Amino acid sequence: MSRVGTAVALVAVLPSLASGAQWTVVPQLGLTADTDTNRRLENPPRPSDGLMLSGLLAITRMTEVSTLALTPRGSVNRYSGDDVLDSGDWGVDTMYRRTGERATFDVQGGMSDDSTLITEPGETGFVEANTRRHALQASTSMTHFLGSRHLLRYQVGISDIDYDRTLGTGLVGYRYPSIDVLYAATLSPRLDLTLTANAARLEVPLTHVETDTRGVQAGFRFRVSERFDLETRVGRTNTQARGRSDVAQSYFAQAAWHNERSNLELTLSQDIQPSGNGILVHADDLRLAYSFKLTERLTLDASARASLREDTQVDLRRYEYRYGAALLALSWNLDEAWTVGVAGSYVRQEYEFFHSDADGHRVGFNVAWRPRQ
């Protein structure tokens, strides 16, 4: 808890460290209060009220050819009627990018310690007491520009996930190293063709199980107009574990539209992903995000998500986990530093393995401070 308090305090005092034209330090503080009819998505439901104090600090150094960014965050969460869910969450992300005439180099990394109340809805569905998820992630990529119409990008990454207090949850830690290769060819100012290939391995130390996956996708990116972009990829993924092999279709499709006052983005995807259950799952996701500026100071935001996770258990039967969420929020800029907002959301999950369906409603109010730049 002391680490969380320190992280939040640093957000308020570190702006004084910014010196020189190349450095920027942007803090942000937020206070949110809400009431939820079923925060843990249990059946029967258990209502609770919540209060969260959060802080974030964006530290950036930019030159003509490079960018260095460090973003620590922290939050303190308290809940009524279910004190076991009280938590202090924290994380830090870093990124370095260097751009040359013919190549771009990126390094990214991050670590976090969060409650499963935040990380598991929509992924595994296990939200038990004060179980915690620790994540360590790192990746590096190199992009080569092969003339004016072709590029080749290599990316290597690894995720290391672990959990605390997992008795009865089914959650297990895992490692997931991966490699991706992308080739893109520009056919016209509006059309790019893409070809991607990837390989990854899921390693679960607790069960000593290793699962390999290989995939390939082909697609295109098309700029319909200055305001409308389309991207789509389709392919297949092969998974091998314990002498068994499984082949599944994969795809990704995205449409993005914007004008002076609004933004709309729709994404549909299907692929193989690692899971806190210690296995690879078939993951289907539909996501919608919309933002509309009603007035100079008033903004409407709406989002929706529908997810399906399908996995194979020890009885060799596939079980489905379904999750849906919708959010509607209004934010009002009081001045250049202060923003207030109100939001309402609805979530539902259906877990076939446990024959448990649950839903909940949440209404919240928040105040945020971000200093004038």
Write up this protein.
The chain has 373 residues and is mainly beta. The chain has one domain (2-369): Porin, CATH 2.40.160. 4% of the residues lie in helices and 68% in strands. The chain has an 18-stranded antiparallel barrel.
The CATH topology assignment is Porin
Class of secondary structure makeup: mainly beta
- Spell the H/E element sequence: HEEEEEHEEEEEEEEEEEEE
User: Ranges with pLDDT <50 over ≥5 residues?
Assistant: 6-21
Helical stretch tally: 2
- CATH domain class name: Mainly Beta
- Per DSSP E runs of 2 or more residues, the count of β-strands stands at 18
- Strand-residue fraction? over 45%
CA radius of gyration: 22 Å
Work out the helicity level: under 10%
- Calculate the terminal CA-CA distance, rounded to whole Å: 31 Å
Average pLDDT number: 89
Biggest sheet details? 18 strands, antiparallel, barrel
Name the shape in a single word: globular
CATH architecture: Beta Barrel
Indicate how many domains the architecture comprises.
Answer: 1
Keywords:
single chain; 373 residues; mainly beta; Porin; 18-stranded antiparallel beta barrel; 2 helices
